Amino acid sequence: MSPAVLIVCLWLAFGASHILLSSVGLRPRLVGVLGERGFMGAYSLVSLATFVPLVSVYFAHKHEGALLWATGAGPLAFWLISAGMAVAFILLVAGVLTPSPASMGAGGGDAPAEARGVHLITRHSVFMALGIFGCLHLLVNGYATDVAFFSGFPIFVLIGAVHQDRRKLHPPDSPYRAFYEATPLLPFTGNRTLEGLRGMGWRPLAIGILLTAGVRYFHAAWFA
């Protein structure tokens, strides 16, 4: 099995385990047996058991296989990726500081009466940050193993976000529905984006830019 195919298989295992364990049919039964904290612990262990090998295989086989595209890494690509990663880090930080009812572990009953801040940009800000990360790295990493690894992020994000929404919209009268209808799935596609940017505050912006600068500075040493 080629490294690229193995990476795809590990992504499938990671995604399938997430969807299966958190499904409407299986999750309540597991919570009934393990308790909420026990379920989250088991869920995290399964995630690590698939994601750690995924990352390990990729880093052992970076830039291997067929070259599917080569866009170069000139100044334009550098600034485009840096700006995009700043957006991703800002969404990530904002999502951590203002957890969404759409996130894993938040019950539908926890949905706020009114969406606010980053929720008005996207209700899945942490997910979308990972999706942006994957898309940006695909621009300048065109070998088979790179494409298999980085394309998994936006694919998993979209499937996972939609699955999470559908689970939390069950039953039909779930209080999550009001939050769902007031917030967009994809970033910056809602009609209240400017309100969300204003309500997000300065901390995610400042921390996100600092993280971007730090990772950019140490990128070659950490990931080369």
Care to give the gist of this entry?
With 224 residues, the chain is mostly helical. It contains 8 helices and no strands.
Set down the secondary structure blueprint.
Elements: H1 3-21, H2 27-60, H3 75-97, H4 125-140, H5 144-168, H6 176-182, H7 193-200, H8 202-223
Helix pairs in contact: 1-2, 1-5, 3-4, 3-8, 4-5
Write structural notes for this entry:
- Helix 1 (3-21) runs antiparallel to helix 2 (27-60) and helix 1 packs parallel to helix 5.
- By secondary structure, the protein is mainly α.
- The protein folds into two domains: 1-61; 66-223, no CATH class.
- The chain is globular and about 50 Å long.
- Helices cover 69% and strands 0% of the residues.
Mean pLDDT: 91
Q: State the low-pLDDT regions, or none.
A: none
How many strands in all? 0
- Global Rg: 19 Å
Backbone structural class: mainly alpha
State the end-to-end CA separation.
Answer: 25 Å
Whole-number count of domains = 2
Let me know the largest β-sheet.
Answer: none
Share of residues in helices: 55-70%
Question: Main attributes?
Answer:
mainly alpha, 224 residues, globular
